[in-house]
Specification:
Thiol Ester Dehydrase, Chain A; alpha+beta; about 130 residues
Length: about 130
Amino acid sequence: MQLLKPGLTAKATLVVNDTHTARRMGSGAVDVLATPIMVALMEEAARKSVDPHLEQSNELSVGIALDITHKAATPVGMSVWAEAELLKVEGRKLTFGVKAGDELEIIGEGVHTRAIVNRDRFLDQARKKADNRL
């Protein structure tokens, strides 16, 4: 984690297709970019900005909080992007400024928080939880 300093940035992009729409995702009734897809793009950008800088091969970052707005619709066929900038490092907690846009305007923005975890312990907890299902 020594290499993680505020200012790291990354970008993620996609072209909106039918699988990315609110109607298809179940988050709305129209054929425009679904908010969950925009959120995933923001998380991807944040992850891409820090994961290459983690010290150990068994460390990764996972999303733990989001506070975003989605303020403009993007139709099928249009390109969208998300950018993340690491704003603060507090131990294993990382805070990012995130924004997303399409070919014409900013469509969303906010704050995203990630935590650095040990991959093996994280997956072991998930397996134990699955094993303890009723």
